[in-house]
Design goal:
It is a single chain. β5, α7 and β6 form a beta-alpha-beta unit. A seven-stranded parallel β-sheet has the order 3-2-4-1-5-6-7, sandwiched between helices. The radius of gyration is 22 Å and the shape is globular. The protein is about 50% helix and about 15% strand. By secondary structure, it is an alpha/beta fold. The chain binds guanosine-5'-triphosphate and magnesium ion (MG). The site of magnesium ion has 6 residues, from α4.
Length: about 325
């Protein structure tokens, strides 16, 4: 038995590789804490990743994302596949382990050795949600999970970055998710790969279906037309159909090298998002901790210094960037 405190870079990486649940839990806690050991372990594991398929489930609060994942997990367990689930909860503080149960309805699967479920809060994490989620996904990937589900609420910028790493993105809606439908319509929300309209037992589900269908029909150019599935997660209704649509999307990506192309783009996007997040945090700390830089901001406010000159001086001082003409 290895006690928590006894994990080393080697034993933790080995524990993750063998799929040991305690090692996985420990690795993800370290990731949430931004612990240096987590960086080393993920670095060691990275060459062994790239084998699991990541499915992101996003959507407004309470539409049934966790219930859908639970039903999907049950379905794929029937096919004998190993599964990881990460539920990203942006509202909960990191390290509190974002207590399961309340937000995530997956308790049926806790005792299954082939299913690893973790809720992750990252408020206060320096690198933010995207960074922690990416690292956690890589850990589950290295652990040999064939499928990894990532749940995230909403459609804000940080959620887009979280879900941006997924191979297939499922948008879950329910009757009454008018804001999301408007966001889709206005092009604010990226078109997902599959849409589930959950709570089909609700009388307005059909209306919702027609509304979403008419929005998607406006865009005929797309290579992949996102299928829309009516589901009732709590009874498992149509969850097999939803799974079929996810599998269709996967098959579509896997033909003609599209999956590789998407992953290349996704990884580049994540690296860029994490780097930007860190640069921003660095900048904020630098300005807060440097009276001279704060004085620049005051001078801008007093109209003694124009904004772009202040930007230039801040960039030079914080990032040692020297700008050419016109920047
Ligand atoms: N009637 C009905 N209720 C459902 C269905 N699916 C989920 N629910 C209920 O809706 C509530 C929210 O379900 P969750 O699965 O927790 O939803 P969620 O989207 O994960 O919620 P958050 O993570 O809090 O954003 C629960 O009370 C579920 O039992 C469904 O198909 N029909
Ligand atoms: Mg949930």
């Amino acid at each position: 038995m290895t006690r928590r405190a006894d994990w080393t870079r080697e034993t933790l990486a080995e524990g993750v590789r063998s799929g040991d649940k305690r090692a996985l839990a420990r690795a993800i806690s370290l990731i949430e804490n931004g612990d240096a050991l987590a960086y080393d372990v993920v670095r060691d594991l990275y060459p062994q990743t790239g084998h699991s398929y990541a499915i992101g489930i996003t959507g407004p609060p309470g539409v049934g994302k966790s219930s859908l994942i639970s039903a999907l997990v049950q379905h794929v367990r029937g096919e004998g596949r190993s599964v990881g689930v990460i539920s990203v909860d942006p509202s909960s503080p990191f390290t509190q382990g974002a207590l399961l149960g309340d937000r995530i309805r997956l308790s049926d699967h806790f005792t299954d050795p082939e299913v690893f479920i973790r809720s992750m809060g990252t408020r206060g994490h320096l690198g933010g949600l995207a960074e922690a989620t990416l690292q956690a996904l890589l850990v589950l990937d290295a652990a040999g999970k064939e499928l990894v589900f990532v749940e995230t609420v909403g459609a804000g910028q940080s959620e887009v970055e979280v879900i941006g790493i997924a191979d297939t993105v499922v948008l879950a809606l329910m009757p009454g998710s008018g804001d999301s439908v408007q966001a889709l319509k206005a092009g604010i929300m990226e078109i997902p790969d599959v849409i589930a309209i959950n709570k089909m037992d609700h009388p307005a589900a059909k209306t919702m279906l027609n509304e979403v269908r008419s929005i998607l029909s406006l865009d005929r150019e797309r290579e992949w037309r996102p299928p829309i599935v009516l589901t009732e997660a709590t009874r498992g209704e149509n969850v097999d159909v939803l799974w079929e649509k996810i599998a269709d999307h996967r098959a579509h990506l896997e033909s003609d090298g599209r999956l590789e192309e998407r992953r290349r783009k996704n990884l580049a996007g994540e690296v860029f998002a994490v780097a930007s997040g860190r640069a921003k945090a660095h900048l904020e700390r630098a300005v807060a901790g440097d009276p001279e830089l704060r004085r620049l901001l005051d001078e801008v406010q007093r109209r003694e210094l124009d904004p772009l000159t202040a930007v230039r001086e801040i960039m030079e001082k914080v990032f040692k960037l020297h700008h050419g003409k016109g920047s």
